[in-house]
């Protein structure tokens, strides 16, 4: 038995009604956010609760430039999740976190602040979860194939459900058939139709 609380892997992600986290081409600009007032209230609430999930380039604009990390100190993502930032010349999208990109094709020297993991992501996550230190957890940022692979190690889900059906695209979990039960710990509904649900692995 560990003498300290093991870090958790938390999948924090936006999902459509049909379980997609992005469109077929990686699109995510179709997620409805409501009118201006609704969008501002929803963004302020989620940004305050999870400030570390706001990309570094946008933190100052939303008043989070010096905000401490509340839940996570590490982020793990697949190449598909990392690619939009990279395509815009941003090689370190979450500079306020330790960043790991799971990819067998990405160059290892893309950015000194980003660790490229070409091998087994399960081994990586198990190692990260056993670290001692800040008491903060590991954020699984996406994408679907990585989440499917890491499902055995996902301890909690924070799902932002948007009232839109994509019809096709990247599934939240794209892996083998492996029914895994999570219990709802908390659910918050917003006027823009989004619900945020916190679930804990049973």
UniProtKB/TrEMBL annotation:
InterPro entries: DHFR-like_dom_sf, RibDG_C, Riboflavin_Biosynth_HTPR
Ranges where the Bacterial bifunctional deaminase-reductase C-terminal domain occurs: 8-194
An annotated Gene Ontology molecular function: 5-amino-6-(5-phosphoribosylamino)uracil reductase activity
Top-level taxon of origin: Bacteria
GO biological-process terms attached to the record: riboflavin biosynthetic process
Pfam family, one: RibD_C
Gene3D superfamilies reported for this sequence: Dihydrofolate Reductase, subunit A
Name the record gives this protein: RibD domain-containing protein
Organism per entry: Streptomyces azureus
Organism taxonomic ancestry: Bacteria, Bacillati, Actinomycetota, Actinomycetes, Kitasatosporales
């Amino acid at each position: 038995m560990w003498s300290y609380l093991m870090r958790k892997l938390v999948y924090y992600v936006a999902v459509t009604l049909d379980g997609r986290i992005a469109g077929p081409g990686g699109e995510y600009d179709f997620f409805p956010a409501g009118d201006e007032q609704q969008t501002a209230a929803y963004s302020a609430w989620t940004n305050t609760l999870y400030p570390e999930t706001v990309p570094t380039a946008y933190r100052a604009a939303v008043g989070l430039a010096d905000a401490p990390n509340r839940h996570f100190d590490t982020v793990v993502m697949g190449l598909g999740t990392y690619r939009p930032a990279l395509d815009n010349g941003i090689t370190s999208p979450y500079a306020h976190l330790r960043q790991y990109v799971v990819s067998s094709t990405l160059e290892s020297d893309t950015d000194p602040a980003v660790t490229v993991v070409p091998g087994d992501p399960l081994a990586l996550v198990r190692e990260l979860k056993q670290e001692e230190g800040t008491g903060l957890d590991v954020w699984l940022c996406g994408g679907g194939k990585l989440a499917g692979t890491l499902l055995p190690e996902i301890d909690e889900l924070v799902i932002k459900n948007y009232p839109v059906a994509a019809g096709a695209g990247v599934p939240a979990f794209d892996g083998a058939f492996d029914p895994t039960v999570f219990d709802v710990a908390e659910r918050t509904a917003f006027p823009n139709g989004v619900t945020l649900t916190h679930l804990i692995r049973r």
